[in-house]
Amino acid sequence: EKQNISIQEATDKIIKWVDELKEKIKTDKTFPLGSLGDFSLDSVGNLIFIPSLDTDISPESYGLESFTFPPSSMHEKEEQSTDVVEEEKKIQPTPKIKKRKSIVLYVLLIIILLPIIGLGIYAALYTNDFIQIKKDISYEITLWLQQKENKYVESKIDTTSSFEVFVEDSYDYTSAVSEIDMNEEVTIEETEEFDEIEIKALPVSEIGNTYIVLGSFKSQENAQVFLMQKQEEHPNIKDLGQGKTSGLWLIGLGPYEETEAQQLLNEKKVKGWIFRK
Description:
Blueprint: H1 7-28, E1 30-33, E2 37-41, E3 47-51, E4 68-69, H2 72-90, H3 96-125, H4 127-156, H5 161-167, E5 185-188, E6 197-200, E7 210-217, H6 220-230, E8 238-242, E9 249-256, H7 258-267, E10 273-276
Antiparallel strand pairs: 1-2, 2-3, 3-4, 5-6, 7-9, 7-10, 8-9
Helix pairs in contact: 3-4
């Protein structure tokens, strides 16, 4: 029967019929279309129309002779699978690299904290031992720094023959020296072209703690040789011992007051440097 209905009503009826067709195909795998035939699924999964053979009505007149359509269920499955993939992309687990980095950071933190905690526990349980160990470590560090400083000082002080030339006179004096009183004047007869040179032993103060160093040496033997060479020129020369910082053997004059030592260096032209002991 023909009915006068609106386009919207016709559209709604078609949508309803399509939904019924989908449900019918899902459950029964076929959908009868009156005496014309049945909609069914083939082996591939396509929706096809199978005409009825016992009717005089030809399916060609309805355009169903070549009808083939993939079932909507397949589209639904594809849509569902697409949705699942999108959801999986959204809910992706944290990358393994980030997890590994966080694990490594935790391990490093534990490694750093464990010795500190252990040291604190040891200090609390064995306080005296901890204090002694701390002192020993401080001493070792100080000793190591002093050795570094000594090497630096040795690099600054030239102890080679060129240094000895610096502290000695530039002339070769060959002299005959009689017995010398440490505090008396000494006269040296020169065999060179020079006239007699009077050398007075430099006065020594018994109060000061300042010395004039004439030479410094790595070995005590070289220091003693230098001392013997300079005894004629400086009767009151002496071995000042080994420097605490540099570790070098020092040969010089003194002790003096600081101003007195400076005066001897400037006025008497003594070749050396100030040393406070």
